[in-house]
Specification:
By secondary structure, this protein is α/β, with parallel strands linked by helices. It has 14 helices and 6 strands. It has a 6-stranded mixed β-sheet with strand order 4-3-5-2-1-6, sandwiched between helices. Pfam families: TraB_PrgY_gumN.
Length: 284
């Protein structure tokens, strides 16, 4: 009897892990009072190939609106984002780096972005790092979110956001400005080599649709922005999103598109939605 119980527990654990770890970027959300299913899709913000699979297009056809991390068609988004890009309390990049390191960053930014560090001195260093993302690709940058929006607009459907620009930008005030600057210095000293290698590996994982490997990759990254601050960047936001996803999905069948790293792990959106009572199944 004891052996049978152990075997049953092992089987159940294996089944649970298999469901959680299944390789898929697209997940169907049902149950828990939903009259129509919604879908959850893991995006990647920049890529060489943003083409969408047939299963994603079909899910878009069956839903009534698109919900991304931000309301990407908000006409005020760009201005509001720019207003939140500066560090608080008069902190500058120059105050966070040695004279030698600031000079290295200055030469690097002039070469890569065409701007001296003095012009960007008050910007949050992570914002500058984000400007460098296209430089890490051996191609012209494409966006999965942009492709989703094209479909949504063609279907005359509304685009909404899970969080406000203020909420998303405040994340980078919760991450040490010093750590942000230290990472930018490392990027400059390696002339993007380390960051490009990580980007290449992440794109390969995304193509494999292995969401658990993508989550693990961010947790083990050499870049402390994702590894040290995974709670700020991922799990805290995931937990904030669940009640919002619940409310949105119950009001209208919705296609949710969030960064793929938000899907995996025990504090990932998939597990949290299941804990909230929803049935979440991989679409393959």
């Amino acid at each position: 009897m004891k052996k049978a119980t152990i075997l049953l527990l092992a089987l159940l654990t294996g089944m649970a892990n298999a469901q959680t770890n299944e390789n898929s970027l697209l997940w169907k959300i049902s149950g828990n009072g939903l009259t129509k299913p919604s879908y959850l899709f893991g995006t990647i913000h920049i890529t060489c190939d943003a083409s969408l699979s047939d299963k994603v297009k079909k899910a878009m056809d069956t839903t009534e609106q698109l919900c991304l991390e931000l309301d990407m068609d908000d006409p005020n988004m760009q201005n509001e984002m720019i207003s939140k890009m500066m560090m608080k309390d008069g902190v500058t990049m120059k105050s966070l780096a040695s004279t030698e390191d600031f000079k290295i960053v200055d030469e690097f930014l002039k070469a890569q972005l065409g701007y001296p560090a003095e012009v960007l001195n008050s910007f949050k260093p992570f914002m500058i790092s984000a400007m460098l993302y296209p430089k890490m690709l051996a191609c012209e940058m494409q966006s999965v979110e942009a492709e989703l929006m094209k479909i949504s607009q063609a279907q005359n459907e509304e685009v909404i956001g899970l969080e406000s620009i203020a909420e998303q930008m405040e994340v980078f005030d919760k991450i040490s400005y010093q750590d942000q600057m230290d990472e930018l210095v490392k990027t400059a000293k390696s002339n993007l080599k380390r960051d490009t290698e990580e980007m290449t590996e992440m794109l390969a994982l995304y193509k494999s649709e292995n969401i658990e490997a993508m989550f693990d990759f961010t947790a083990k990254s050499e870049n402390v922005m994702t590894s040290k601050y995974s709670d700020v960047m991922l799990s805290n936001r995931n937990n904030n999103w669940i009640s919002r996803i619940d409310k949105i999905a119950k009001s209208k069948s919705t296609f949710f598109g969030v960064g793929a790293a938000h899907l995996g792990g025990e504090q990932g959106v998939i597990v949290l939605l299941r804990k909230a009572g929803f049935k979440v199944e991989a679409v393959n």
